[in-house]
Amino acid sequence: MTVDVLAIGAHPDDVDLGVGGTLLQLAAQGYKTGILDLTQGELSSRGTVDERRIEAQNAADLLNVSIRENAELPDGGVDNTPEQRLKVIPFIRKLKPKILLIHRASDRHPDHRAAAELCRDANFFAGVSSIKTDSDPHRADQVYNYNPYSDDETPPQLVMDISPHFEQKMQALVAYHSQLHNPHYEGPKTLISSPEFWDGISKRSAYWGNRIKADYGEPLYCEGPIGITSFTELGKR
Ligand SMILES: [Zn+2]
């Protein structure tokens, strides 16, 4: 099993929040997509590891991804070390994505910041043949960054128009019964389980969509320069 696009998140639900619509948009265009969660979210104040595994798989089904894997790194201890890179490299080599969607290095959550560096460097070393694993070397050509909460003040370089898939993305997020706003779930209050956060998902998506004259969008960041042969797609602003 290989994929065209691999989205990597520190915790189950990060990918879904940040690029769930992008994955749906790409799947609709025929791309084979996959998700790698780095941790099982065992540090969360809401939901058990087993609950979160089921929620993540249900969400993956709704996002039309072909595969969702977990690297089982320590929640709260994601770090860009040789040991942790060696846990991520085998997934990149096995799944052979051409495109990686990873966290941004500026993010309030320490695991998200560390995941950005870890995944960028794991992708680099996945292409280095002297590092031996079960699979052949492979490096994704394109790497884009996302912020799970889309609340970054930095203007993104790209906004993916996810208008046709917004409702489906929200359905996938509903699968996270224990994590996101759910009046029927008893548990400690957290930032992302508040009704305000739930409400903000659609408001921020509408804001980014509005910036590109679409109904809903997801901001993406990348390091330039980007080579082009036409202005066709770039003209949409
Ligand atoms: Zn997270």
Which regions are unreliable across 5 or more consecutive residues at pLDDT < 50?
none
Read across the widest sheet, the strand sequence of neighbours is 3-2-1-4-5
Gross CATH architecture? 3-Layer(aba) Sandwich
Task: Estimate the strand proportion.
Answer: 15-25%
Give the names of the bound compounds.
Answer: zinc ion
CATH topology: Rossmann fold
CATH homology superfamily name: LmbE-like
Put simply, the count of helices is 6
User: Which descriptor suits the 3D outline?
Assistant: globular
Distance between the first and last residues' Cα: 37 Å
Helix coverage percent: 25-40%
The number of distinct structural domains comes to 1
Summarize the helix and strand pattern as letters.
Answer: EHEHEHEHEEHHE
Find the count of extended strands (DSSP E, 2+ residues).
7
CATH class, named Alpha Beta
Which value, in Å, is the CA radius of gyration?
17 Å
Let me know the average pLDDT.
95
Biggest β-sheet: count, sense, barrel?
5 strands, parallel
Structural class by secondary-structure content: alpha/beta
Describe this structure as you would to a colleague:
The protein has 237 residues and is of the alpha/beta class. The chain has a single domain, classed as Rossmann fold (3-Layer(aba) Sandwich). Helices cover 36% and strands 16% of the residues. It contains 6 helices and 7 strands. It has helices at 14-28, 49-62, 82-95, 110-126, 166-174, 195-211, and strands at residues 5-9, 33-39, 67-73, 99-103, 142-146, 158-161, 217-220. A 5-stranded parallel sheet has the order 3-2-1-4-5, with helices on both faces. A two-stranded antiparallel sheet has the order 6-7. α1 runs antiparallel to α5. The termini are far apart. The mean pLDDT is 95.
